[in-house]
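note to self: dont lose this again. the chain is below, predicted strucutre after it. 200 aa total, dont forget to put it in the shared folder this time
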Amino acid sequence: MGTAPWGIRNQDNSSKEVVMADNSLDRFIDSMRSTWGPLSSDVVTHSRTHLEKLVAASPAESWVADLHKEASPYHELHHDMDYGFELLSHTEPDGLYRPPHDHGRSWVMYAVQRGEMEMGTYAPIVNHDGRIELVKRDTTIVRAGQVMVYLPGDIHDTLCTSGPALLFRFTERNLKKEDKEEHRITRYVQRDGIWTVADA
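---
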């Protein structure tokens, strides 16, 4: 799916015509495309700024109102055919927990539009048994209007603490392909009270 159902422009590799942005989602896409490049501090800073503006969009905008009404656990808002980045939305119920994981080669940003999320970060160590064990670094409460950034290799979990929460997830690349086809994403499971790699 390359476009959202609200009339976001079609894009293909043969055309890069400029289309007038008429809502905050269009403006976000235009802004991302104008500042896109290889991962750098500037790209992260610009992307965070663009996402903070997007997440502040009024619920009166039709595309935001539709997301609230649909309450879909997964919705593709934009997949950029030229640059590869994606913007997804997720509606998560109160108490939904997603165990620790990374995002393979990708960097990722989460922005809360409604509700509240708790996000923890972890670092892997080799314990005395020679197993990979995650050590929790910290926990951050992410409220509406706030953005969290995870760089390649960062490990985190999520817990919806005030739902239904509406999240925007901006990814450098298609994570379904990264996960299902290229098997680059690492997920962790809990064994004897320790978070460790699933195949350990």
